[in-house]
Amino acid sequence: MTEDTDAYACLILAAGSSKRMGKAKLVLKYKDESLILRCVSTVLQDFAPRDTYLVTGAYKDRILDALSVYPQINIIHNDNHLEGMGSSIACGVSKIMEKDYRGILLVLPDQILLEEKNIKEILALHKSNPKAIILSNYGNSKGPPSVFPSQSFSYLTDLQGDKGAKHGIVDKFPLELYNFPLGMFDIDKMEDCKEFDIRD
Question: Which of 86, 95, 102, 154 has the fewest beta carbons closer than 10 A?
Answer without folding.
Answer: 154
